[in-house]
Amino acid sequence: MSTVLSAILLFMGLGGLEVMFLFILLPLAITIWALVDAIKSDFKKDINKLVWIIVIICFPFFGGILYLLLGKNQKVGF
Do 44 and 76 contact (CB within 8 A), yes or no? Predict the structure, then answer.
């Protein structure tokens, strides 16, 4: 299975550094950005901040994506 994935990635012109960026650094950056934004922001309800921080930490990549899509609407002044 991994040889098939390697062949597909090689065919697409993706080497080791690009794959590392795609699967490790990009999700990590999204998670950190969402976590910092959630910590620094004020929400309409105080409990929302805690809930979003827990979601981002428990589901690192998907929690960050959910926060960026849904959490922004719950912030004060947005």
Answer: yes
Other C-beta atoms lying within 10 Å of the C-beta of residue 49: 19
Higher-scoring residue by pLDDT: 18, 41: 41
The token pair that represents 2 in the structure block: 């991994």
Cite the DSSP H helix spans in the chain.
Answer: 2-11, 16-20, 26-40, 46-58, 60-70
Q: Report the sign of the C-alpha dihedral through residues 37, 64, 68, 22, in that order.
A: positive
Q: Domain limits of the chain?
A: 21-74
Give pLDDT tens digits for 35-68. 999 999 999 888 999 999 999 999 988 999 999 9
Residue type, 73: N
Q: Could you tell me how many residues make up the chain?
A: 78
Among 40, 20, 29, residue whose Cα is nearest residue 65: 29
